[in-house]
């Protein structure tokens, strides 16, 4: 790699890990172009231009709404894409309101679902909100963001208020949704009402702009119609592209598909998962997850096409940026060293957890072992991973031997080292029978 290319990577790393850019000097039209260039849809684009211009003239910020239901403990990188747009709007001088759907979490957004979400307790929701705040705060300064809980809106409403909203809006837009039609028999009334509950948030908040992934497009259109029906200025909306999963098969990042990078992953796991994405997704990830400019990406892309820059180095840059934002720059470089040692050099990591367990008594000792040392959460997961070839044993010749038979005996060497998947290692000692 030339010194010029090395300097470009270093400058980009500094620039893309700096979340304190000042975009307040941009004109209204420049703000619009920046927002639209990274959007899939802008609902009511001319109105958005008009509002940006008026905000600039009056020196009065717009109110931006981004809502998220705390239905689990961890977010993945796909959830952060609209947050990055919110961060740019904050840097432009606008006001951001982060709405935690502590009420709507009882229902759960049915968009794209093939089943009904489980009901959460108030304690679970409160715990999830705490986790979400910690994770989101790594990508946007929450001290400058208004935190809103949508349960406060519904406490102010009566059944009569709700009925007046429902009477003014048609059911047909909901019935046109493919995800609803595909599971009409199991669809609950609560799920069918979810888009209007989103709209009620906006009736109270009166945002100028709402942000969300492109899977929220129909929900946003319903919100616009509800606001109009109540005599309010309708919000504009910006939808972002859905981040594709790490597998490279074209499906969106999703916990249910297992192709996600959790914001609660360790620095090493985050780095390793980023390195696992195919080269074809590099532009997609840089564009959605960082503030890289088109010019800077073109500079990287040109060097890769001219073979003066290995895509592996660009992927390492992306991994370092994300780990730095989630943890620290020091941990990012430590994670890179770990990756290069374990995966590039195919050596063992410096620190492998040493575990002691009693000898499994079942006819499926490997299944019982993986559960006992907590490399998996269930016996079912263990069986699937073993039969799919994810378990390997370091044999006496220093080679990784694949274990695919769940009934195979455990090795007699004590201790023995195993690897599950690409990133999980353990040194296991079987305790003698009591």
UniProtKB/TrEMBL annotation:
Name the catalysed reactions.
tRNA(Tyr) + L-tyrosine + ATP = L-tyrosyl-tRNA(Tyr) + AMP + diphosphate + H(+)
Question: What are the alphabetically sorted keywords of the record?
Answer: Aminoacyl-tRNA synthetase, ATP-binding, Coiled coil, Ligase, Nucleotide-binding, Protein biosynthesis, RNA-binding
- Xref: Pfam families: SYY_C-terminal, tRNA-synt_1b
GO cellular component terms, alphabetically, are:
cytosol
**Superkingdom to which the source organism belongs:** Bacteria
| GO MF annotation, one | RNA binding
| Residues annotated as domain Tyrosine--tRNA ligase SYY-like C-terminal | 347-425
Query: Which spans of this chain does the record mark as coiled coil?
Result: 2-29
What EC designation does it have? Answer: 6.1.1.1
* An annotated GO BP: tyrosyl-tRNA aminoacylation
Q: Which family does it belong to?
A: Belongs to the class-I aminoacyl-tRNA synthetase family.
Q: What is the official name of this protein in its record?
A: Tyrosine--tRNA ligase
Instruction: Identify the species of origin.
Output: Candidatus Woesebacteria bacterium GW2011_GWB1_38_5b
